[in-house]
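Submission sheet (multi-component)
Chains listed below:
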Amino acid sequence: MLQHGPLLERLLAGDFICQVSDEDAFRHLSQEQTLQDINHYLRPLNRRLVSNDDNSVYFLAYHELNKAAREQLSSQFALTVQSLLPLLEWLQLVQETLGRDSALTAGDTIKLQEFVLRTEDNQSLRQRLNQLASDRFFNSQSDALDNQVKLIFRRLKEHGYLLQPHSDRQYYIVTGKIDYLIDVIRFIRDEEHLPVDDTPTQQAML
Amino acid sequence: MAPLDTGAASNLFSVGAERLALLGKHHKALMQGYLDGFIDEAAFSESALKKLIAARILWRPDEQQPLALRPLVSELIASMVADENRRQINADVAEKLEQIRNRVQAYRDAQYKGDYSVAELQLQRLTEHVHDLSGQFEEAIDSLWHRLNSDFGFVASLDDKIRENERAQKQLRRLLDGLDLLDFNELIELSEGNNQLRKLLVSQLQHQLSSHHSSLLEVQKRLVELLARFRQQQARSMLITNMAAFLRQHPKYQPADYPNRSDVPLLFNQAAAIQPQAAIALDKASERQILAELVRALPRAAVINLPDQQSASFAAVMEDEEIAARQQALKTDVENFYLRVIDKAGPVSALEYLVEQQLSWDSEIWLYQIIAEYQALPQDEKHMFAIKRDEVPASAVNSLLLIRDISLSLQAA
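Outcome: structure written.
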């Protein structure tokens, strides 16, 4: 168990563990025995290890839902719902700005400088970024593009969606938490029967 | 070989060589034609155009159309530069098999007649056909791998990639069907009783084709995986776009209260963070040693003995006076040291003097003050003293020099 100390600390601190954020730990977690050991250890803390549907990201959940846990989950959920639109808009903005043909997935690299350069020269992108930065999820007070972008990326790093391998170099890697976000969206859509399509119609495919 | 054959062959040789040279002679204009899809006739002279058409390099598909490269030439270029947009895959095996059967028959007939030079020639052709057949698969597999490894990067959009992937899978199925046409029992029968044929048609061809077969299956597996990934990406992009649009249209939208359901969905059961804290425990005697070392390793703050402070302003005055007094005492002691140097003929070590006089100064401050005093001397008096620093490098890897001691002596005028 001692060998998993750092991993337990990260999990307890609320980190999401995926292949990008911690490759070794992720490999350990995909072993049944380790999973059991960790759950056994977490039991008295009223925690257990869970993962999303396709096991690409692990995090801690409550074992038993007492009143305090419910309260925590409620406020957590409110935050998640509030962050949905800004996160989706950011995903769209990055995809369009960098001219990518598909949505961001775990492991993709974003160079901050490239993002700034491309936004700078495009009035409509600039405006959308401006609006996004002032959303209360990012809450930027600055008018300068450079500051806005840096703040947005820093906030996403804090929330675990991005990883910055070198703190002095401005490039980021998308983590598996983005898969979690997509799963949340898909779940809400399915549960609430929202008219939100994700399969191309036959027409679009031809 | 019959003399007639030699004549035809030499004629073939000269015509072929001449026409190949044409390709080289007009390489830039032809390549431009490959890229544009038609030939700029102004780039050639009248006679050059005639020659190129006669050589079946260029043709006019239609009266109204401009000249273009013949498909075979385009194909050759596409294969040479691995241009996956234009590269063709030839999956026709039946025709090749038919040729092989005919050649075997011709070879056997010639042998039966005892016409060995003809038999030799037929065997040569047969070898070429067998190599062609294998080469055809090799080319196709190379093209498929190339496309796969570049993630279909030669087309821009995800939709195009999906279409290209589906096209590649169809080609692959045709290739596999082609391989199925090859019946080794038939080939064994064809080569019956002849060692050379057996070697060519059975051991060699079989070996090559079975390796092609496994390559194709591997490519197929990877193509299917890649297509699944493309589709997943496509679904994800659409979900993001449509969900964002929905949320923008319904700014007041609130999903159900999942955290307070009796059965909370796993995705929303995200526990609060716990930050584990730890402090030094002194209850284990065995760890005292380690703890002591840790404490010793802590960077120590310079010890300044100040009297207990009662109030900020009071202390400030005290401090100034205290420091000034100590400064003066230090200066006096250093001056005494200099006097000793003048008294004594030989060099005097600063640290030895410090110990000898039982002075309470920190050795570093002491050395520093001596150097400062030396620097403060007027230029002509400085010459009177020889100052010698006892220095050592900070460590093996750090060439910073640390002063260990200073010795001062009176300089002979």
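Remark: Chain B touches chain A at residues 156-159, 161-162, 230, 233-244, 246-248, 254-260, 264-276 (CB under 8 Å).
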